[in-house]
Structures are given as C-alpha cells and as structure tokens.
Design a protein that fits this description.
The complex is a heterodimer of chains A (403) and B (359). Chain A has 403 residues and is α+β, with helices and mostly antiparallel strands. Chain A has 13 helices and 8 strands. The chains are: A alpha+beta (403), B alpha+beta (359).
C-alpha cells in the first residue's frame, strides 16, 4: 500500500490543481473512464476488476477518497477549496471517487466527533482506504419511524456485552464487514437507555437474510443477533448516549441522501436532453408535445433551485461549523424531486421506460426502471418525509407539542 | 442566506432596522389613506436616498456606491417585508438600463441624479395586461409615440426608460406624455402612459440584447421584493399559529399544521436560493453574463410559485381574521399577484427557460 509518495501540500490552488492532474494522469486507468457506478454502495460488491482495485488503492493511500478527513487518520486533510478542485479535476478526466459507502458518508464523520482516540485510529484509516464496508443497525420491525422504540438488547457481562434481537432494512448487510448499531442497554428509559456500539458481522451469532424489494434488487437485509459478544471497547461514547450519537449520524445520512452525494450523480443528464431523444422535436428545435415541455421546464426550474439550495447549505454549514437541522429540509426536498424526475422520465419513455429485463431495452432503460422503483425508498429511509416534517416543525420552527 | 461581506451585512441591518422602525406596514396604511400624488411618501423616499439606496448599482464615478445587485436585493427584500411603498425598484432598474446602454454623456447627465434620488426613473415596457416582450412604440426624428400599460411607479417618475420596436429610449417627463392612473389591488402607483411625439433619446450602447438584459434585472430585483414578502408572510403566520388557541391548545401543536409549515419552509428555502442565485449571477456575470438569462427565469419563476402558495396559505392559516382589512396579511396577497404578473408570468418564464435551454 505504501508505494505512493505522500502528496505534497500545495501552497496555492494552481499548484494543487497541477498536483491532482498529474496524479490522475498517472493513476487513473483509462478503461474506467466514465464507468462510475453510483449505485455500487447499494448493489453490493461489484466484482472489482484489477483496474478498479488499483484506482481505489491509489486514491485511498493518499486519503483523497475522504478528502476533508484529518491526515492523521488517513484522510486527505484538504481544505474545502482543494476538495472542490479535486472534484473538478476528477470530473474533467472522466474519473470518480471510488471510495464511498456508509463508512464514508455517515459512520466516519460521527466517529471522528464522538469516538475515542483508540477507536478513531482503529476504524477510520480502513474506511479512508476503502477496505472495510460498514452497515447500519438502526431500524427494527417495531422501530421504524419510532426508532427510539428499538428493543435489541445488549446485556452487560462485565468486560463485554451480549446482544440479542433483530434489525431490519440493513442496507448491504450481506456484504458488510462491520455494523454500527444502536441497541438498548436500559429498558427503563426509552431515549437514555440506548447505546451506540460497533459489531463484527463475522460473529457466528449473526444471521443475515436479504429482502427482495419491488425493484427486484435485494439491497436491504434482515439481521438477527443471537448471543453476539461485543467487547466493551466497541462502545462509542458513554452508555446511554446512543440516541444523541445516533441522531447526529442521521444528519450526515440526510445530507448525503439529498444533496451532493449519490442523488446528484444519478441526476447527471438533463431531463430535457433525454426527452429530445424519445419525443418528437419540431422544426424550431422545441419539443412538439407542449404539455410535456411545460412539465419538464417546471421540474428543471425547481431542480435548479434545489441544487442552489444544496450549495447554499454547504456554504452555510461551513460558516456555522457542521451539519445541522437544515439537513432535514434538504432530504425532504431532494428525495421528492428525485422521485418526481423518475416518474417524468418513465412517462417520457412510454412503455420503453418500463422494461423489466431481456431484449428490446438498453441498459440505461432497464436501469431507469430499477432506479424508479428503488427511488421509492428514498422518502422512507433515513427518516421518512413525515419524520423530517416533524423535525423541521419542532426543532427548526419551534412548533412544540406543549407550550 | 448568502454569505455576506461586512459591507453587505451593515447595509442589510440598516435596511432591516429602518424598515421595521420607520416603515412598518402601518406606514403603508398611511400612504393608502393619504394618497400622496407620487404613490409613496416623499419624505420616506428622501430618507432612503440619503442612505444611498438609490445608487447601489450605479458606478462610483456617477455618484453611486456600486455595491452590486446582491446588495440591492438585500435592501429591496427588507422593504418587501414591510410593504414599503417606494420607487426604489423602479428607479434602480431605470438606472441599470442607462448603466448598460447609455453613452458616457447620457450616464453623466442622468445617473448622478438617479443616485441621489433627485430623479425618479421607471421602466415603461409592456403594452398590455401581461408581459410578452413585444413593443410597438415607434420613434421618428427623436420623437417617441406609443402607449405603455401598467407602468410601475409612473406617478412619481420623471424619467421613463421606454421600449420601442428598435430599442430602448429615455424619455424625460414633459410635453407629449399623459398618465392615466390604474388602481390595482396593491394600492401602489400604476398608470397607463401615453407618449405622443415625446422627445426621446436612444440608449444606443448596450448591444442587441439590451432589452433582455434590463428585463432580466427587472425579474431578479422584483423577485427579491417577493422574497421579502414571502419571508414575512411565513414569519407572521408562524407567530400566529404559536399564539392562537383552539381546542385548548395552540394551533402550532397540531401536526396537520406543522407539516404544512414544514412544506412552506422548504419552498421558502428554494425561493431564497433561486433569488440569491439570480442576484449573484448578475454580480458575477456583468452585462450579458452567460448564466444571467436562465438564472433570472429561475429566480422569478420560483418567486412566483412560492409567493403564490405562501400568500394563499398565509390567509388560510390565519382563518377568518386573515380576511379582515385590520390584519396585514391580505396586503401581501394583493401585492403578490401584481408582482407575479409583472415581467413574466409563471407560464411565460417556463417557456423562456425551456427555450434558453434549447428544448
């Protein structure tokens, strides 16, 4: 792994841009150009090719897969401005960041904030190198929107806990190496009886069963815990602090689900460009179906103002020092617009946009069908839209239950 | 909220304080009942001009501060919150037309007076009840003839920037101009202005798209006023829900109302981003900046969409009291529709956005 020189800290933006260009030219395999699979983190382990492995290791060893994380834990230690340059240069070369998933999006930032020094040194560097996959042990059959009703119990056995119970909607559980979970350590206190702990998915007491979804994919699992032994050093924060830490993690999740992350990448092509391929275009270059043209413009205008909102949120959170309740607004808006786009897309394609499998459909069309169905989950997971509305009303707008 | 520099923060705070203390909705009520000839309080305008607000987009060489469009938008937003009756938007837009298209001589003649507030300008563009971008006014031998409909702030204006079939002209108030007032729901100054061989000077230096550049600025700055209105309707409605008790509980505790406010809060966030995006595009792009036309369409279309919903929900969530003249909420509804119809209805703007995007 340590075959690469430590990246020099460029003193000016231009010098840094040159450094990134040289790095991409040297390490990014030409065969991967434009091949980023944005759904990789939910579809499971893509059969990683030698080129993909080399690119992941190159990015991972200099920390640029997690550009803003501290260097001492294997991150890139870059400023926001440098991160933007990195993203621009990757995009310019048709390259992409091969390191992602829940470890990067949610768990890493949370552990950096709440973890002990030993925990950070143990867990952050493998995430930065893209070596370890994490899954999220949150929801249970009886604890969906009412997450704090979770019942999976961790019994104190002195130097370790013994965990029993069931988690569900464990994204990528069948492929994960480790699980960050919120579990009950005290049955007498709903919120303060929850603790945040790290569980090894290789433990023999863990049984993972994929759930087939309406999209035909099985990105989510049921996860059963039977007498799973968890060492005490895997407790993050104090016992009973799990609800606070767990909610913080959800803010990172929401920010990623809505804005700069996968959602924006999935939306790459303008709807109007796709429409011009599938629908009649008049001599004036305009879509002949004026009703559909109006609806596309209506959507694109709102999508544009959502992108501006996501950018504004980044600038404001930078000024305020971290993610905030505004993540609820972004999640609510971004997921709704994403679904609206998928619905418009299949309407534009007609029955050609509803292909399930087999001949007669391009990969893009079949992917569109699955994406449309998978996308229905976005307004449910990470706290449903209704839960986001509760958070906005109560935490942001101060519309409390009792006044 | 966009990230502001120190200068802009001071400007916004000053505008916010002045609007709240010296020009609350009660001041608008006074204008409504006293009906000054200009359609606004001349004293208030003198004060605003003395604070430098009339010259925010005018270069320093011509007596302005050249603080830029985001700065102008900050002030206009604050005035929108309190429904301040003033010619600030109209005069700023007229000045911007001269900045963009005037000769050095024309700039030197008019801009210092517009910056000081001594001269009030306005745009006279549309010829019917809706904006369609067409102008049939004609100019022969330096004399302009034509009729312009629903000209904002016409009563107090002494300088008109008029669109004719072959470009933009400046017409100073004088011989050949007649005004016929049109009282609209917002109780502000609007008039049909007829030019009969009125002396006109062409703004010849702005290029072929001068009219579009000025209209884009009109869309964006109007959207800034609408943003202030939408923000205020939201804030006032939220306060009301926290105070009004029914079924022994404050209305704010009802989930049905909480979720409606959460929806409006999301819409408001998008509107703010779109409007600030438009203002920032003007500052970044300058005349003919690549992104301005689309940014302007997005800003005004979003302002139309959100203020429309907000003004309806504001009345509805106030219940019966929102229907009374005693409460201010109805003023916002009545001003909202006037601004929605100005410089491009939602349908017009969507069509323009699609055409600009090539579909």
């Amino acid at each position: 792994m340590a075959t690469l020189a430590e990246p020099k800290t460029a003193t000016t933006d231009n010098a840094f841009r040159e450094e990134v260009r040289a790095f991409v030219a040297e390490h990014f395999p030409a065969e991967l150009k434009g091949k980023n699979n944005a759904l990789a983190s939910v579809e499971g382990p893509s059969r990683e090719s030698a080129a993909e492995k080399a690119w992941r290791e190159a990015m991972g060893s200099c920390g640029w897969g997690t550009p803003t994380w501290p260097r001492e834990y294997g991150g890139g230690g870059l400023t926001r401005a440098q991160t933007r340059i990195l993203q621009e240069e990757l995009a310019r070369a048709g390259a992409y960041n091969p390191i992602g998933g829940m470890g990067v999006m949610m768990f890493g930032p949370t552990l950096l904030e709440y973890g002990s020094e030993e925990q950070k040194r143990e867990h952050i560097p493998p995430i930065a190198r893209g070596e370890i996959r994490w899954c999220q042990g949150y929801s249970e059959p009886g604890a969906g929107s009412d997450l704090a009703n979770l019942q999976t119990f961790a019994e104190d056995k002195g130097d370790h806990y013994v965990v029993n119970g069931q988690k569900t909607w464990t994204s990528g559980g069948q492929w994960a190496d480790k699980c960050f979970a919120i579990v009950r350590t005290d049955r007498s206190d709903k919120h303060n009886g929850i603790s945040f702990m790290l569980i090894d998915m290789k433990d023999p007491g863990i049984d993972v069963r994929p759930i087939q979804m309406i999209s035909g994919m099985s990105p989510f699992c049921e996860t059963f815990f039977t007498d799973v032994k968890v060492p005490k050093e895997n407790l993050v924060g104090a016992e009973g602090q799990g609800w606070t830490i767990g909610k913080r993690l959800l803010q990172h999740e929401r920010t990623n689900l809505s804005g700069g992350g996968a959602m924006a990448r999935l939306m790459g092509q303008a709807l109007s460009d796709i429409a011009k391929k599938y629908l009649e275009v008049g001599d004036d270059g305009q879509l002949a179906d004026k009703v559909m043209r109006d609806r596309i413009a209506d959507f694109e205008i709102r999508w544009q103002s959502f992108l501006l909102t996501a950018r504004r949120a980044v600038e404001e959170s930078k000024a305020a020092g971290g993610v905030s309740e505004i993540s609820s607004v972004l999640k609510k808006l971004g997921t709704k617009l994403g679904q609206e786009r998928s619905e418009l897309l299949i309407e534009i394609m007609g029955l050609q946009g509803l292909g399930w499998e087999g001949v007669g459909f391009s990969d893009g069309e079949l992917g569109g069908t699955r994406g449309w169905l998978f996308g229905k989950a976005t307004t449910i997971y990470g706290g449903s839209t209704e839960i986001q509305n509760n958070i906005i009303a109560k935490r942001v707008l101060g519309m409390l239950d009792h006044q | 909220m966009a990230i502001l520099n120190e200068e802009q923060e001071m400007l916004r705070d000053m505008a916010r304080e002045w609007a709240a203390n010296e020009s609350p909705p009660a001041a608008f009520r006074q204008v409504r009942s006293q009906q000054p000839a200009e359609g606004y309080s001349p004293d208030a305008w003198t004060t605003m001009a003395a604070m430098g607000w009339a010259g925010i987009v005018i270069p320093e060489a011509h007596g302005g501060s050249d603080f830029g469009w985001l700065s102008a938008g900050l002030v206009v937003e604050e005035l929108g919150k309190t429904l301040t009756a003033s010619p600030l938007v109209a005069s700023t837009l007229a000045a911007s037309a001269i900045v963009l298209g005037g000769s050095e001589e024309q700039k030197a003649r008019w801009l210092p007076k517009l910056a000081s507030g001594e001269l009030v300008g306005t745009l006279a563009m549309d010829e019917g009840p809706r904006h369609d971008g067409r102008s049939s006014a004609t100019v022969e031998g330096g004399k302009l003839s034509g009729t312009k409909a629903f000209v904002h702030e016409a009563d107090g204006a002494s300088l008109f920037v008029v669109s004719a079939a072959d470009g933009l002209y400046v017409v100073e108030k004088g011989v050949g101009i007649t005004l016929s007032s049109r009282k609209l729901t917002d109780q502000r100054s609007h008039a049909e202005v007829t030019f009969a061989s009125a002396a006109a000077e062409k703004l010849a230096s702005g290029g072929d798209d001068l009219l579009d550049q000025v209209l884009d600025r009109a869309r964006i700055l109007t959207a800034a006023e609408m943003l202030g209105m939408a923000q205020q309707v939201f804030d006032v409605t939220l306060d009301y829900l926290k105070q009004r008790v029914q079924f022994n509980q404050v209305l704010a505790s009802f989930q049905a109302l909480q979720h409606r406010m959460a929806d409006l809060f999301g819409d408001l966030a998008m509107m703010r981003s779109a409007v600030e995006g438009g203002l920032e595009a003007l500052d970044a792009g300058g005349p003919g900046g690549v992104g301005v036309p689309r940014a302007a369409a997005v800003a005004k279309a979003e302002a139309n969409r959100v203020l429309h919903t907000m003004s309806r929900e504001g009345v509805q969530l106030h219940g019966g009291i929102g229907m009374t003249d005693e409460y201010d909420i109805g003023f916002y509804l009545k001003r909202a529709r006037v601004l929605e119809a100005s410089w491009g209805s939602t349908g017009y703007l969507k069509n323009r956005f699609a055409a600009l995007a090539g579909y």
